[in-house]
Design goal:
heterodimer; A: 6-stranded antiparallel beta barrel; 38% helix; B: mainly alpha; Arc Repressor Mutant, subunit A; 2 domains
Chain lengths: 366, 188
Amino acid sequence: MDDILLMDAIERYRSGEMSPQEMIYFEELRKNHPEIDQRAAEQTFFLGEMDKLGERKALRHQLHEVENKLANEGLISLKEGKAKAKIVYLWNRYRRTIAVAASIAGIVSIASGTLISIFSENKVAVITPLVDHKLNQFESKLNQFEHKLNDASATANKTTRPAFEANFRATGFLLDGRGYLVTNAHVVENAHNIIVENKKGDQFVAKAVYIDRQTDLAILKITDTTFKRVTGLPYTFSKTPSDLGEHIFTLGYPREEVVYGEGYLSAESGYSGDTTSYQISISANPGNSGGPVLDKSGQVIGIISSKETNADGVVFAIKSKNILAALKNISPQDSVRLPVVNTLKGHDRVQQIRKIEDYVYMVKGN
Amino acid sequence: MTIFEQEKSLLEGLVRNDSDAIETIYKENFSTILGFILKNNGYPEDARDIFQESMIVLYEKAKSSSFTLSCQIKTYLYSVCRRLWLKRLQKSNRYYPSYELAEEMVAVDEELEWHEKQNDDFLLLEDALSKLGEPCKSLLEAFYIQRKTMPEIAADFGYTNAENAKTQKYKCLVRLKKIFFAQYKNVD
C-alpha cells in the first residue's frame, strides 16, 4: 500500500469520514498485514502530533492575546522595564550582604534610602512569604455576609467597617495598648490601605509608622478614632537569646479565624546564617506572617516571617530584640511603651491563649 | 456557586478555548507568579513565559480524560510554575531561590515530564516543517495549524480543485514525516 493512500485512509479513519464497511475492511487489513499496521501506527502517531501542534499554536496565540489585552487594561503588568527588574534582582541578591554591611558600617540610611526609593516605585506586586495574598472570592463573600449580619445586630459602640476588599492577610500583635502593632515589613510595604481586625471582628484603619526591610519589621499605628486604648497586654518581650529546643507557640491568621500552633526552636540563626532570626519548627501557612512567637512563660521571642524553600516545617522568626532596636529608631511622636508585666507565667496553655488572643490582630489591606 | 464549581467551570472554559475563562485565570493568578519569579531573580518576561507554559500544562491536564480536579487552580499553577522556574534557574546557574510562598503544593512531576517530551516533539516537528520548503510548508500549516478547509486551501494556493490540493497535501505530509522520523529516531 502506497504511503499516500495509507495517509489518506488513516486521516479519514481518524476523523470518522470512513463508511462502516470501509472501516471494517481497513481494520482487517491492518490486522492481517503487520507491516502495514506498523506503518499505520507510525502515521497515526504522526498525524496526532500534527493535530496537537496546531492546537498548541492556537492556544499560545490565544494566551498571548489575553495577556496583551489584560496588560493594556492595566490589569496585569508585564512590561516593567529591564532596569527596574534588575534592581529588584540585585536587591534580592544582595540584600543580605547589604544588611550585613549596613550593620557594620552604619550606612543604613544611604544604602537603603536610594535603593528602597527606586524599589518602591516599582509597581509590581511583590509577593512575600507567609502573607496570604489570595483571599478568595468565597471568603470575601462570606465576610460581606458576616459583616451584614454584624451590622444588623450592631450596638451603639459599633466600629467602622471601611468598604474595601482586602487582597492580602497576615498577622500582627499589639506592642502598646494605645494602638501600636508590630508585623512584617513585607506584609505592609506595598499596601495602600491597612486594616487591622481583632478577634471580635472589630476593624480599625491603621498606617505604618515604621518599616525596615532589613529586619523585615513594620510598626503600625491604629489611626481610627473608634479605637479605644486597651490595657493589660499579658506578654513581655525577651531581650536575651532563647535556647535551642525551647518550646514555643504562636497565634496567627492563616484563616479568617485565629489559629494556634506550637513547635520548638530549632536553630539560633535563620536563613543561610542570618543571625537576626531564629529557625523554628512549627506549621506556618500564608497569613502567619507577623505572628508572635512566644515561649512557655509567655515571653515574645520572635515574629514569624518566612519559611524555607525545600524543607518542611522550617520557619524563620525575627528575634524579638530587633523590635526593641526598631523602637529606638521610631519617630519621637510615636513613642511606644512595651508592656513590662507578664501575666502569663505559670498558667496553662489554654489560659495563656485566652489571655493573648485579644491582642493578636489580623492585618489586611490592599 | 461554590469554589469547586467555579473552578470546574473555569477549567471547562479553558478546554473549550474560551477567552473569558483564560482571562479570569490570568487575572487571578498572574500577579502571584510574577511576584514569585521577581523575588527569585527573574524578570517580568520570565514570569510571562513561565506562566504561559503553566497554562499550557493546565490545559493539557484538563483535556486529558483521566483528569479530576484534586486541588485549586492556583495551587496547581503555582506548583507547575515553581518547578519550571527552579529548573530554569538551575540550568542557567542563576542562584537558587531563597524565597518561597508558603503556598500549598501538589506533585506535578509526571505531567511536566510529559509536557517536556511534548515540547521536544513540537520542536522537532517545527524544525522538520522549516526544512520542507515551499509550498509544502505553507500548505501543511494552512491545514493543520490555521485549520483551513481543503476547498479554501485549493483556492488560496491555486489548485484547480480540493482533490488536487489534498493529493499535494499528502505528498508533503509523507515528506515531512520522513524528515521528522529521521530526527525523531535519532533523538530517541
